[in-house]
C-alpha cells in the first residue's frame, strides 16, 4: 500500500505513514471492552421499590432476579445480622435514579 500524502510504500496494518506521519485511516481503532455502557451507574430504583429501592437498584444494575436479591437480603438479616446495617448504608450511599421524562403521544 502507498501513502496518499507522500507516496511512499507502507505496511497495510500500520495506522500512520512511516515517512510523513499522516494517518492512513485503513486500520480501525481498538474498541473498548467495557462490560457496561459508560452511562450505566448504580442507582436506587424508583419503579419497583418496597422501602428505598436498594434491592431493585442492585437487581437492575447487575441483571439479577429481584426476588432472589430480596431473599438474599432477608437471609442476611436473619442469619448474619448484618443485612439491616448493609441496607441502611446502601440507602445512604447509592444515589436515587433520576426521574424519567414522559414522551408525548406514548400511553403509560
Set out the fold topology:
Layout (H helix, E strand, L loop, with lengths): L53 H9 L3 H15 L2 H11 L15
Helix pairs in contact: 1-2
Could you characterize what this model shows?
This protein has 108 residues and is mainly alpha-helical. It has 2 domains: 1-27; 41-98, no CATH class. It is 32% helix and 0% strand. It has helices at residues 54-62, 66-80, 83-93. Helix 1 (54-62) crosses helix 2. The longest helix has 15 residues, at 66-80. The chain is elongated.
Indicate the percent of residues in helices: 25-40%
Q: Helix and strand succession?
A: HHH
The overall pLDDT average reads 78
Model regions low in confidence, pLDDT < 50 over at least 5 residues: none
Number of helices, counting only DSSP H or I runs of 4 residues or more: 3
* N→C terminal distance: 57 Å
Strand tally is 0
Number of domains: 2
How would you describe the shape?
elongated
Assess the beta-strand content as a share of residues: under 5%
Reported for the largest beta sheet, the result is:
none
Structural class: mainly alpha
Rg from alpha-carbon coordinates: 25 Å
Short description:
The protein has 108 residues and is mainly alpha-helical. Helix content is 32%, strand content 0%. The termini are far apart.
